[in-house]
Specification:
- The protein has 452 residues and is mostly helical.
- The protein is 73% helix and 3% strand.
- The protein has one domain: Growth Hormone, Chain: A (Up-down Bundle).
- Strand 1 and strand 2 form a beta hairpin.
- The longest helix has 32 residues.
- The two termini are 37 Å apart.
- This is MFS transporter.
Length: 452
């Protein structure tokens, strides 16, 4: 069975689906990062080290990352409406049960359940992409991805709930809100336009769904997302603790300043989607990585006292990052990371229109694993080196490696394509994106050979 562009829904239905999925994802992301705030109070109660706190913050990210692979496949098979709704209800139950934990081990087990909220991303990507035509998918997915602002909701609101009610009540409030949204999503959302096609099509085997993962390109995208999303999540979790430790702020002030990083790293994803549609995802990725290399290099420089042995005696001076300078640099870093997140996911429905859930699930999983590994590594680096800025040193190394691999891969592809006088889907931004997305489901996705 084939479906043409003429069968796409009207703008009203598109905006309805986009609005519901974006709001639901925002709440899920707020729940997913809840340990950035309540984890600090739990750490004080249980006397945790930075390594233990980092593990507690990172554990939900692990579950959310791994679950994306399976949730993406289920969404491709069953549709986003039911998968999204049931996921929110299940996560809400896990968040509520967390409040009965009394030991560190129980907290870690509870955190695994809380992490299911992170799987909402790939469900929403597959659900949202199905509603929009190729020329508008980048912008639509950018708007949906702005649901990352949920971490800012937690950084702003959770500290006040924490001070007023304690961490247990805070978690219960989060669970209640998420459960209500889960029920509303099932009631108000509609089945996506591909639902009828899924019912009439032969169900693909797991191996068929995962076939695109044999391509190195998928794993290159995964490395990009490891930084732009994984490092974003890790820093969103770590910043309140960092600000308290480095600048001596209280938890409310630390949460609000951390939100100045998470808000641009979320909302400007919409701009990243539009820029990817307008100028090309590759160009946006270059902007992202170059700016991130500069920002992480400056942020990684620890306070240092220099002594210069002069003719008439020693001269000493100190270099240190002030709080205003830190806020500005993290704002800039968050802005460019948000552009990069949208650019990575702009590629997937273009390259793999019938495997958005599977490929997007793997890319999202690797990115999410970054959000698990990095907070834990930040804590270990703090305990081992005793240098707070070591987290930014690690981020600098990751983004520099991603930039180098991207540039090498693109230059290699360009040489091959120029020699053959063709353009491949590795570089969709150099030509018209519609050439690479099937205008009808039965068309070949390979672009025509360009004249000499």
């Amino acid at each position: 069975m084939t479906t043409t562009n003429s069968s796409l829904p009207g703008h009203r239905e598109q905006y309805r689906a986009l609005g519901l999925s974006t709001f639901a994802f925002t709440l899920c992301f707020a729940v997913w990062t809840i340990f950035s705030i309540i984890g600090i109070r739990i750490s004080e109660q249980l006397g945790l080290s930075d390594t233990q706190l980092g593990l507690l913050m990172a554990t939900p990210i692990l579950t959310g990352s791994i679950s994306r692979l399976f949730l993406g496949i289920w969404t491709d098979r069953y549709g986003g409406r039911w998968v999204f709704g049931i996921l929110m209800l299940t996560t809400a139950a896990c968040v509520y049960l967390l409040t009965f934990a009394t030991t560190y081990a129980m907290m870690l087990v509870g955190a695994l359940g809380v992490g299911l909220a992170g799987g909402a991303f790939i469900v929403g990507v597959a659900y949202t992409a199905a509603w929009f035509e190729p020329s508008r998918q980048g912008t639509a997915l950018g708007i949906f991805g702005a649901g990352n602002v949920g971490s800012a909701v937690t950084n702003f609101g959770a500290p006040f709930l924490l001070v007023a009610f304690g961490w247990e009540k805070t978690a219960q409030i989060y669970a209640t809100v998420l459960a209500v949204m889960g029920m509303l999503f099932i009631l108000l959302a509609k089945n996506d336009p591909l639902a009828e096609e899924r019912r009439g099509a032969r169900q693909k085997s797991f191996a068929e769904q995962m076939a695109p993962l044999r391509e190195l390109r998928v794993w290159r995208f995964a490395l990009y997302y490891f930084f732009v999303f994984g490092a974003f999540v890790a820093l969103a979790l770590w910043l309140p603790h960092y600000l308290i430790g480095v600048y001596g702020l209280d938890i409310k002030a630390a949460g609000m300043i951390a939100a100045l990083y998470t808000i641009p790293a979320s909302l400007f994803r919409v701009l990243g989607g539009w820029l990817s549609d307008r100028y090309g995802a590759r160009r946006v990725m270059y902007w992202t990585f170059i700016a991130s290399v500069v920002c992480t290099f400056l942020l990684s420089y620890p306070p240092t006292r220099y002594v210069v042995h002069g003719i008439d005696g020693d001269l000493s001076f100190t270099l240190a990052m002030s709080l205003p300078a830190f806020v500005v640099l993290t704002f800039i870093l968050g802005f460019f990371m948000s552009l990069g997140k949208a650019a990575v996911y702009k590629h997937i429905p273009v390259y793999y229109p019938k495997h958005v859930g599977a490929v997007g699930g793997v890319v999202g999983m690797i990115g999410g694993i970054g959000g698990f590994i990095l907070p834990l590594t930040f804590g270990v680096l703090n305990d081992v080196t005793g240098i707070w800025q070591s987290c930014f040193m690690l981020m600098f190394l990751i983004v520099a490696a991603a930039l180098a691999w991207m540039h090498y891969a693109i230059r290699k592809a360009e040489r091959v394509e120029w020699a053959a006088h063709t353009e491949q889907t590795d570089l969709p931004e150099l030509a018209s994106p519609q050439l690479f997305y099937p205008l009808s489901r039965g068309h070949n996705t390979r672009p025509p050979r360009k004249p000499d």
